[in-house]
Fold this protein.
Amino acid sequence: MSPSSSPRRPGLPVALVLIPATLIAASAWLLPSIAAYTSALVSYNTIVVLLGTTLLGANAGLIGTFTVLRGRALLGDVLAHASLPGLPLAVLILGRRSFGAMLGGAFIAGLAGVFLLTLVRRWTRTKDDAAMGIIRSVLFGLGVVLISFVQTRDVDGGKAGFDSYILGKTAGMLAEHVRLIAIVSLASLSTIVLLYKEFQLTSFDSGFARVQGWPALVLDNLQMGLVAVTTVVALPAVGAVLVTALLILPGVTMRFWTERLRTLLLGSAVLGAAIGAIGSSASATFSLLPAGPVIVLVGVAFFVFSLLLAPRRGLIARQIAQQKFRRDRRRRRLLATLYELDEADGGENDWHGVDRIASRHAWSPTELFQVVTEVELEDLIRRRDIDGAGQLCRLTTAGTEHAATIVRGFRLRDALLDQYPDQAVLVAAWEPRDFDENLPPEQLASLEARLRADGRLPAVPPRAMPPADGLEENRR
Amino acid sequence: MSTPVSSTTQNETSGTSRSAPPILDIHDVTVAYHERPVLWDVDITLTEPRLVGIIGPNGAGKSTLIKAVLGLVPLAGGSVSIFGGTAHSQRRRIGYVPQRESVDWDFPVSVLDVVLMGTYGRLGWFRRPRADDVAWARECLASVGMADYADRQIGQLSGGQQQRTFLARALAQRADIYFMDEPMAGVDAATERVVFSLLQSLRKEGKTVLVVHHDLRTVPQYFEHLLMLNMRLTAAGPTDSTFTADNLRKTYGGRLDVLEAAADALRRRQKSD
């Protein structure tokens, strides 16, 4: 294998992500000039909000994906709720309201909440979910109480504004806030680009990572720090209650569409951006709606769409696959049963009562109708009505060959499992013809010889093996 | 290009055979979870490269022993040295196959991605796998018969194929001592054959392999050295002299099914002798 044939060229995709991201983020410093060009169409404020929420969504989607993959989504929620007391505490300590100090307070409080959680986990036998529930609600409650307290003190116009930290408000977003979001987004993007390999490894298999000498705990804490920063800068726009949704939804939604971590991360960032932009626009258009819930609802719309319609992982695709599996199962049972009834009668193709076969396999009338019709259309059986009630059916010549292949597969499998019971897991998924391909020729010959000696080896013409047409069934 | 199992550099192999420190020295090790000892007073010294089986009943602390040696669970007492150093200082020479159930197989990575993780230790911080690392990972995959599955998402593999992927990842580590936690649990016969022949060729390369194993029937066939555990070391030594009815009773108690399987294995060994 020559090195040049490798599909991996790490340089290009990284640049492809970093350059546009940097350009978008950099536009936070060019807001007035951009607004000057577009002022005829949209207001300065709209552009500020749009850029802010887009970056916010992209950043949350990117960081949140790892949180989701590690099964730590609830940890992000604990962090978000625990950050609330930090806002009024910062005001109380400083004696005045300062945007930066309040976010700093929220950051410290959020991490303190997570730290408290690790303490409870380590030193008590409280179950994980209970510990999370307690800390999340207690610290959130503390935050609400402290906010009321600060508001009664009326520190430096403290009456207004705290509400937006609970449910989110994008309308009054300042350029200063957008620049902060831009800095945080670029920092987390560069961290993930730089430490992609390390994060991938520790997220997938932290035990293996530690044996290789990676400081899994440091990497974990770095990830947690990124979640904390992301949460805190999102607080004013989305609110403490709903930040988690912005972190989780993009990753969970994109997971329906891709099996690759790179694509998942990139896709989650793009989707997060779209959710942020659409949500804030909707919130601005209907000015009564708080931004947080609208953004979350937009995210949920993408999620539900993917949940239903994604190929392979989506509900509908899985339902279809399951139905097909069951139909194939019934089809094989019908053919095999007819074959074995003929075999018991001496080998001639004979008419057999459909209802008896159905009751033998506990098929409903619909299932019976479906399978008989399908197989008849394939010209594998003939069907005849009898006066009074019920129907008879009979294998055609093609049907007999097809059924013989199926029955032969079943019997080879059972004979094989008689000898090697521990191979059930492997063999269960084999198609009737797989035995010819997967077994060593001498083993196949000996199994066939055993069946032939018992007179139980169906005569299959050499070229009559049908193509694989579904999943194998488990025979009773 | 070398095959995955013959990758050791010259000084590494010669280093193990002539140098003074033992390959593995476990001294008076005790491990406890929540102040409850799960493994105690374990003393093991390995001076020669060996294929070592670790056997014992469920809950005997087999995995715990491996994890304690590798520093994944803290020691409540005692000490461990690998090639005369700590597990951390010797990490480039250690290969690890964790239990298959220990990871989320729905994680969005391909088989090749997982095998490449074996090269991360040597790559160090920030550096991505390069073309020659990818070629090496593909070779390791080929040596466990998985070359055609490189681009599959790992969740679409059978249990045996997942296990082979983990083995390929350990091979990609180019280690001198391997720790494998139940690599043959719940796998198909083909995979078990692959694992077994892999163990053989690693051994031929002068590597030491410690394998947590559950199937007593295959013990005499697979391993030349045994560690028998039941929360403490009940027996250790060459399989020929250690795998005896007496030691099995000491390790497993009077459980009939186990003893029958072992008796079966003993009989077969006598027949082949």
Summary: The radius of gyration of chain B is 19 Å. Chain B is about 40% helix and 20% strand. Residues 12 and 176 of chain B are 8 Å apart (CA to CA). The longest strand of chain B covers residues 36-46.
